[in-house]
Structure formats: structure tokens, C-alpha cells
Amino acid sequence: xxxxxxxxxxxxxxxxxxxxxxxxxxxxxxxxxxxxxxxxxxxxxxxxxxxxxxxxxxxxxxxxxxxxxxxxxxxxxxxxxxxxxxxxxxxxxxxxxxxxxxxxxxxxxxxxxxxxxxxxxxxxxxxxxxxxxxxxxxxxxxxxxxxxxxxxxxxxxxxxxxxxxxxxxxxxxxxxxxxxxxxxxxxxxxxxxxxxxxxxxxxxxxxxxxxxxxxxxxxxxxxxxxxxxxxxxxxxxxxxxxxxxxxxxxxxxxxxxxxxxxxxxxxxxxxxxxxxxxxxxxxxxxxxxxxxxxxxxxxxxxxxxxxxxxxxxxxxxxxxxxxxxxxxxxxxxxxxxxxxxxxxxxxxxxxxxxxxxxxxxxxxxxxxxxxxxxxxxxxxxxxxxxxxxxxxxxxxxxxxxxxxxxxxxxxxxxxxxxxxxxxxxxxxxxxxxxxxxxxxxxxxxxxxxxxxxxxxxxxxxxxxxxxxxxxxxxxxxx
Length: 478
Known about the structure:
Blueprint: H1 5-11, H2 33-52, H3 55-62, E1 67-68, H4 76-80, H5 94-110, H6 118-143, H7 165-179, H8 196-211, H9 218-231, E2 256-260, H10 271-274, E3 281-282, E4 285-286, E5 292-293, H11 295-298, H12 307-311, E6 315-318, E7 321-324, E8 355-359, H13 360-374, H14 380-392, H15 405-419, H16 426-432, H17 436-442, H18 463-468
Helix pairs in contact: 1-2, 2-5, 2-6, 5-6, 6-7, 7-8, 8-9, 9-13, 13-14, 13-15, 14-15
């Protein structure tokens, strides 16, 4: 079974409670090989809480043109309409991220002192650096410069001034370069751990983000080169059908560069029900309808695109009853949902579908976009990478002869939107390409009146952080 089974054991036993953020066990723990294994397991487990919960996903959907919300907890609609305050409960990815960083720092600091083979020490430290880099990558894209903490701390109330964006990215880049020393793969029982391909793939994504909208940026070439290194590992590929990437049977399969794994009814995700159609019966309960697919996203798919029914289905069948759904109806009990995480084998509502942090299709599209920018137009390699993703969805147009620099760039941007909905990609794509404001203003269905301004490119630092850490300054205009 392809599953991170040792994380289940750790998260279900008392020993994991010995990783408090207040550092009480510093002198009595981290002594044995088992402690080292538990420490890296704790870092993975904390990372998984970010992606198994719904708030990070909600930020991505509700602050873009992909998702619409109506009711529920009071802070949802203000976020959707860009009436965002530092007290909004859904903007806080800060504490979970720093808890993950804390656990990564524990590994990096303590594992070298534990009697363990040099190879295993190096592996655990490299894994921790990957997790730390991913956590800081989330933080810097959400909030801008943040405090850099690289050693174990006694409290999450980190009263450290914010570092610059460049300083944060410098740490991310170095951590990922160190993590490139990881193995290419692991045995089946350990699949789900960060690998060489995951480190290279995330570094390609970092370089793509750093390039931003800058023509001629050296980061374009770096992004293309790092994506090509992942491709040259020759261990990843696309499934023949898009739906196969989200099959329970294919967890840990050839398309996943890095995934947050789950197990049905044991240690899993509630996102299937959370983003299911409101009030309709689902495995283990009823759909919550937290966010629905917008007409903008739904209508971006061609009718032949096989991805639409996976991401935004127009029918839903449960218990022998089929329900017809609509992207435009105001009846939220018949709204088109984000459906790819629904696990109908669950009996508790705890789904077993993994969160696909990075799939091989993203590597191909990073390569295509970066080559187009580096060469001021698509070459054959860029087109082939794009075409592989595009045609997997049963689409055969447009042809190579129709592409120049601008049309190819727009085609890749559209492909990313259609390929990755509900994979926490859309907001970050709109941010790095400078399109967030226009995209949000263009999607005003269901009474949305977004008050978005340029300062909304960053979220506010949560007010609780400002209150507890006087040295941490708030983002402008909040």
C-alpha cells in the first residue's frame, strides 16, 4: 500500500506530544534513532495539517475568480469581497506554517547529535530543509517578508523583525539546493516523503515565481533548467486520463512529484465534503458547500475537455439518485462543486485522496512557460511540453503555427487554470503574473462586489501575531 504509514503511528501515539513548541523536552529527548525518526515524522505531520484542512484552500478559491461563497462562518464573505481585516480567521496561515518550521528546525538542529548513520542523518536533514523551504515559500507569497527563524525556539510568539522578501527567498533557495541530495525515490512503504525530484520541482516553481513579470529575468532560464532536470529523471509521467491522477488507487503514482497523503477514515482530509454540494448526501454526512465553482472557471473549459467533469461536475450520483448541477443557479444545493477530493468509499467523511502539491503536469507547464519567456517565443520543446498536458484532456487545438510569444503565454496560463483548480495554485499564479486585480474584478457572479486594491496582493499579518510580537510590522494599508 502506498502510504505514509509511519506518520499514522506517530500522530496516534503519545510520543508525538513530546514535540511542544515551548521546547520543554529539549534536554530529555532527541537521543535515539527512534527519536530522530519521530522528529521528521512530526514535521511531515504538521505540514499535512495545512493541506488537509480547508482554510488554505479557501484563500485560494475565494480570493480569485475560481470560487464563490455565500454564507457559513462570518469571515468567509468579507474575504470573498476583499473586505479583509487582520482579524479575519481565514487569512491565518502564519501559526501553522511556523509550527512546521519549528519542527523542521528541531530536526536540522538535533539530528546531527543523535547516534545514527551519516546517510540517514543527511536524509532527515534534507527532508526537513525541504519542508522548511515549502513553509517559507507559502509565507512569503501570502504575506511578503516574514521573520526568518532557523533554530528551535521556545515559543511561537516569535518577536523577530520581518526579513526582506529577498532574504526569505535566499533561505528557500539554499534549503532546496541542499534537499536536492535526497534520494530519487523511496520504497513503497515510505512513498510520500520528499525526494530529489520534489526538491528540484519546487525550486523550479520558486524560480518561476521570482521571475514574475520581468522580461529577460535570469530566473526564466533557471526555472526551465530545473524543470528539465526533473523531466530527465525519467521516473515521472502523466496518467493517460486526467481522472486517474485523483484515483485512490494511484496515490504515490507516476504523476506525483510531491503529495500530502491521506488514508480513508484513518488520517485523511475533509475537503471532499467541505467543498461538496451543500446539503446533498455524501459519504459520512452531507456536503458543506463552502465554495462553489464560478461561471468564469466553468465556462473556461471547452465542452470536449475531460477535466471539467472531474473538477466541476454537472451531475452527482449517490445512493442511486442522480442530481443535476449548475454553474449559474442561485440554489446552492444544486451548485457545481469542487469535486476532485470526494472519497465515496469513506464512512466517516474523512477522505483518503491525497493533496497533489505538485504533479508532473506542472513541471511540463513550468518548462513550457519558462522557455517561452527565455526565448521570446515558444520553441519545439516548449510546445511539446504544453501539448502533452493539453492533449491529455482530449484537446487537439490550437496548432503550433498559431503561437507567438503572447498567444503561447496566454495559452499556458489558461492551461494552468484548467489543470489545477482546487490545488492552491490560482491565487499564486495571478499574483506572480500581475493579473489578480483584473481577474477578481471580472468575476462578480452571485452578487460579489470585490473591493480589491493593489495592497491586497499581500494578506494582512494576523492581528494575533501583531499583538504578541511587537517587532512584526503590519502590511501597508491594513
